[in-house]
Structure prediction request, 151 residues.
Amino acid sequence: MARLDFFAAEADQRDVFDFLFSSTDVRVFESCSDFDQELREFRSFEELARVFPIGIDQVGSGSAILLQLWSPSVMSDLAVTRIAVKSKSRNGHTFRHRIDGGGLMQLYLGGVHERVLTRSHLGADPLDRPLTLSPLDAVPRKTFAPSVMVG
Prediction:
């Protein structure tokens, strides 16, 4: 499994997406949909920035924005799975969606949190690795990632 941790503020994150959208065939999806919503695909940096606070890590965990990158030249088929949720534990919500498949790349964006720059992460699973966890299960709820002071 390939992994790369890096530090990126808003301008750096914009550069990453400008490269992805202009120079690759990668398509960008949220890792897991909101409750009772379809999974969203982002076709530009501007679309992504309308939904997420790019460059800001409000919690400070290094996983402010959880994305999946899909390259049709690497993996021809893409699966979106509907997940039933127990409505008692989720205030009446009944489902959400996630993107599945070996060969996906995970991009978890950190950012600035209280003058500290938290890490971002890029990872890729082998094509033949079965998915056993949801993307949200794979990321600890509270982490103490290395950080860099800013400003």
About this structure: Residues 2-129 form one domain. DSSP finds two helices and ten strands in the chain. The longest strand covers residues 116-124.
